[in-house]
From TrEMBL:
<feature type="domain" description="Amidohydrolase-related">
    <location>
        <begin position="46"/>
        <end position="425"/>
    </location>
</feature>
<dbReference type="GO" id="GO:0019239">
    <property type="term" value="F:deaminase activity"/>
</dbReference>
<dbReference type="InterPro" id="IPR055156">
    <property type="entry name" value="HutF-like_N"/>
</dbReference>
<dbReference type="InterPro" id="IPR010252">
    <property type="entry name" value="HutF"/>
</dbReference>
<keyword id="KW-0479">Metal-binding</keyword>
<dbReference type="InterPro" id="IPR006680">
    <property type="entry name" value="Amidohydro-rel"/>
</dbReference>
<keyword id="KW-0378">Hydrolase</keyword>
<dbReference type="Pfam" id="PF01979">
    <property type="entry name" value="Amidohydro_1"/>
</dbReference>
<dbReference type="InterPro" id="IPR011059">
    <property type="entry name" value="Metal-dep_hydrolase_composite"/>
</dbReference>
<feature type="domain" description="Formimidoylglutamate deiminase N-terminal">
    <location>
        <begin position="1"/>
        <end position="45"/>
    </location>
</feature>
<protein>
    <submittedName>
        <fullName>Formimidoylglutamate deiminase</fullName>
    </submittedName>
</protein>
<dbReference type="GO" id="GO:0046872">
    <property type="term" value="F:metal ion binding"/>
</dbReference>
<dbReference type="Pfam" id="PF22429">
    <property type="entry name" value="HutF_N"/>
</dbReference>
<keyword id="KW-0862">Zinc</keyword>
<dbReference type="InterPro" id="IPR032466">
    <property type="entry name" value="Metal_Hydrolase"/>
</dbReference>
<dbReference type="InterPro" id="IPR051607">
    <property type="entry name" value="Metallo-dep_hydrolases"/>
</dbReference>
<dbReference type="GO" id="GO:0005829">
    <property type="term" value="C:cytosol"/>
</dbReference>
Amino acid sequence: MTRLHFASALLPSGWANDVQVVVTAGAIAAVTPGVAPAAGDERHAIALPGLASLHSHAFQRGMAGLAELRGDSTDTFWTWRETMYRFALAMTPDDVASVATLLYVEMLEQGFTRVGEFHYLHHDRDGSPYADIAEMAARIAQAADASGIALTLLPSFYAHGSFGGAAPHDGQRRFICSVDRFAALMAASRKVIANLPGANIGIAPHSLRAVTPDELRAIIPLADGGPVHIHAAEQVKEVEDCLAWSGRRPVQWLLEHAPVDHRWCLIHATHTTDEEVAAFAKTGAVAGLCSITEASLGDGIFPARAFLDAGGLFGVGTDSNVLIGVADELRQLEYGQRLKHRQRNVLSGGAGRSTGRTLFDHALAGGARALAQTAVGLAPGARADIVTLDAAHPSLAGRTHDAVIDGWIFAAGGAAIDCVWTGGQKLVEGGRHKLRQVARERFNTAVGRLVA
C-alpha cells in the first residue's frame, strides 16, 4: 500500500485541497479530500490524472526530423510517406524495441500514462511473416513493459495500396495481411499482452484506402468487443479518391456502411463537412486528433469547435511522434483553431471557462473511451495513473486550480512535469524516467545505424 498526499488535486468532481490518495495493487483504493498529511504520506503539490496518447506509430519516433529536406516537387504527406516507407523497411525487431522503449519513456515524462499503439509494422523486411507472426507486436509489448506505460495494442489490418482493392505499394510489404493472416496475428497478439499489467487490445483497419468493404466486415468481429480505430479523411487527396471510388467521402462512407459507435475512434477526420461532423458526433465515436502530426504533415485543421458544439468527444494522440507532450498536443489543437477562426480561447466552451481545463477534460474522457478504459481519473477503482506538476515552475507560480492547467499547457509545457505513476509505480521523478539513460543509449545505437 502507498499513501500519497497532494496539496491540490483534480478529482472527477473538480479541484480539491489536501487530498490523500491510497494506492493498493496498482489501483486507487481511497481518495479523501480535506485532510492533513499523515505520517508516512508521500507529499506533493499538484496532482492530475494521466492522459492517454490514443494514436501512436512507435517506429516513426526513429525518423523524427529526417523528412524536413524539401525535394524538387511539392512536398506533401504523400512524399513524406516515401521517407517513412524507406525507414520502416530497414528496421529489425530489436530496432523497433529500442525505438519504442525510448518513445514510451518520453511519453511518461511528458504526462502520458497509456498509449494506443496503432501497430502495422508486422513482417520481415521482405514482407514474409516471422516464425512468430506476432514478433513485432511482442517487441511493442516488451517496450511497454520496460517503460511501465499502459498499452492498448491495436494491430492494424492493411491489405491494399488504395481504394477499391488496388495492389499494395512495394514499400508497404511489411504491413500487408490477408484476412486469415490477420486473424492469426490477432490471436497471437492477444497472447503477447495476456500477462502485461494494464494492457488490452483492439483492432485497427488502417483506412478505407487499405481495406475493402468485405475485408472490413470480416475483421471487425476480431475486435471481440474491444476498440476499433481507423484513419479517415486525413488528406484532401484521400477524400477525392474516396469520392471517385464510392461517391462518398471517407467519414460519410463509414457512417453509412460501418457499425460506428462508442467503440470506434476515427483518427484525424480532418476534412469533414458540417453534415458529417453532426452525424459523427451522434455516434459516440471519438475523434482521434493528433495536432502536431497534422501540422507537421500539412494535413489541415479538424473542425473541432463545430464537433464539440454537436456533442462530440475527442482524445489526442502523438501519431508520428515527431514531438511528444500532453501540453504540446493540447496547445497545438487550440492554436490551430485560433488560426482558423482568428479568435482566442476557441475551445474553452463558454465565457469565463478555462481553455486548458476544457481541453484536458475532453482528452481524458476521449482517450479513456477510445482505449476502452472504464475507470480513469483520481477516483477509487481507477488505475493509479497520476501526474504531479512542479509548483515552483515560474509559469505556475501563484496559480491555483484551472489556472495551473492553463499555465502548464500554454506556458510551461513538459518542463512542469515532476512525478508520474502508472499502475501505482512511480517511474518519473524530478521530470526524469528511471530508464531514460539506458533507453536513450539503446535508441541512439539503433537509430545511428539506421540513419547512417
